[in-house]
Amino acid sequence: MPIADLHCDTLTELEKQCKELRQNDLNLDLKRMRQLGVVLQDFAIFVRMTEYGSIDDAWSYTKKLCTFFNSQMLANQDLVLPVKSYADVERALKENKTAAMLSLEEGGVLDEDVERVKELYDRGVRLITISWNFENTLGYPHSLTEDTTGLHLKPFGRKVVEAMNDLHMIVDVSHSGDGDFWDVAEMVKGPFVASHSDARAIEPHSRNLTDEMIREVAKHGGVVGINFFSKFLGHDGTGSMEQIITHFKHIKQVGGIDVLALGSDFDGFGGHSGVRTCEDYPKLISALTKAGFTDDEIDKLSHKNVLRVIKDVIG
């Protein structure tokens, strides 16, 4: 079964640990992905702003990771092809390679310079996650310690969404606070995504989406990538396959099969999970089949929905 995953932190870990994308001991690498049928993988540049002395330092790191990504693409041309347009996805499928899309997880590195959006685009970034876990110049993230529901995108955040609309980049609301979510939904011209989020009705974590949000993403033709981190799946910390399937079933019931996708968050979380590395994908597909998902439904959630969004947005 072909696989398309909307989010992993592997790129950041590779650079940090001086490892290679072709083969490593992390949650995924190109050799394993080829064997498992991973047709598309989004690679996030994850920036933890508190690790940097200034926003400019974080911006320099972001550009460094863009360069690192491109070096890995060049070094592994026999296995992978970078995605700058949907034509690149089609070419990768034809050549039996993994299509690799570059994204940014933390819009705060933009500071208040909207020209940086275009610079990221020129460097190959096609998706931006508005925020991580801290307030930034764009807006407000989810919060476990205070009510951010009534807080909205800042004026610069609105400029960023407008710029992304113009450049045909994918807007990602995972980590966003509820107010920011609804502002994005109002502003985007086409599909938007929650690249790695689960269902709040199943696990009441602020990182997860309410049923109303799930329906809104579906209405726009977007997708919700199921996150395999145990904290977002259930209270007991097991992140069991049963819990993962429960989120799939609930989101399908609320938003329909076309809104479901994979957003693994590989190399971005610790602890137990029913899907801990890319090697667990066959177990997930088997569990979905046993849970009553049809082959056509699994085709959609495993890859077709994500490929549709990429085609619709970046063209």
Describe this structure in words.
The protein has 315 residues and is of the alpha/beta class. The protein has helices spanning 10-17, 30-36, 55-75, 86-94, 115-122, 155-167, 178-187, 211-219, 230-233, 241-255, 281-290, 295-313; strands spanning 3-5, 38-46, 80-82, 98-105, 125-129, 170-172, 193-194, 223-226, 260-262. The strands form two sheets. Strands 1, 2, 3, 4, 5 and 6 form a six-stranded parallel β-sheet that branches. It has a three-stranded parallel β-sheet with strand order 7-8-9. β7 (193-194), α8 (211-219) and β8 (223-226) form a beta-alpha-beta unit. The two termini are 24 Å apart.
Descriptive keywords:
12 helices, 315 residues, 6-stranded parallel β-sheet, globular, 9 strands, 13% strand, alpha/beta, single chain
Secondary structure blueprint with pairings:
Elements: E1 3-5, H1 10-17, H2 30-36, E2 38-46, H3 55-75, E3 80-82, H4 86-94, E4 98-105, H5 115-122, E5 125-129, H6 155-167, E6 170-172, H7 178-187, E7 193-194, H8 211-219, E8 223-226, H9 230-233, H10 241-255, E9 260-262, H11 281-290, H12 295-313
Parallel strand pairs: 1-2, 2-4, 3-4, 4-5, 5-6, 7-8, 8-9
